[in-house]
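Morning, I've got a small favour to ask if you have a moment. I owe you a coffee for this, so here goes:

…
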Amino acid sequence: MSVIRAARLSDAKNLAELAEVTFRDTFSEQNTPENMDAHCQSSYAEEIQAREISNPEYATIVAETDDKLVAYAQLRWGNPPGCVSANYPGEIQRLYVDKDFHGKGLAHELMSECLNILNERHADIAWLGVWENNPRAIAFYKKFNFQEVGDHIFSLGSDPQRDIILVRPV
């Protein structure tokens, strides 16, 4: 049984490790080691996670099983792409589950908690970007009634990749 809770500053090291492992597990087969390394180094260091956990424009939640972080999600508020039409949009920036915990409903629980947080913070639209070559994630988001409204470029190292922008009312 996993406990979902707000991330604490003391989670930064373990969150950095989980974030890198889950990102690599998800995308390594389709990307070069150099681009994966560049992205992970610029996105998942312990200091970066500590900064994001402390930032009031972010909300980071973690799922913990037997005192080990096994999944996480991160929300942020700020500048959405032009295709997102909202008064106060919130982005689901990251949602990852350790591969050993796939298929146990944890991603659904995290998504539900993300939507609850967005509602509590009075977001009117939830939005996210998902890589066009990630059909599993796209199907997952569509189960939560996300709809495609556009796209943008996500730079993975030196590789500009197309992310599909999905939205749904909160």
Observations:
- The CA atoms of residues 152 and 163 lie 5 Å apart.
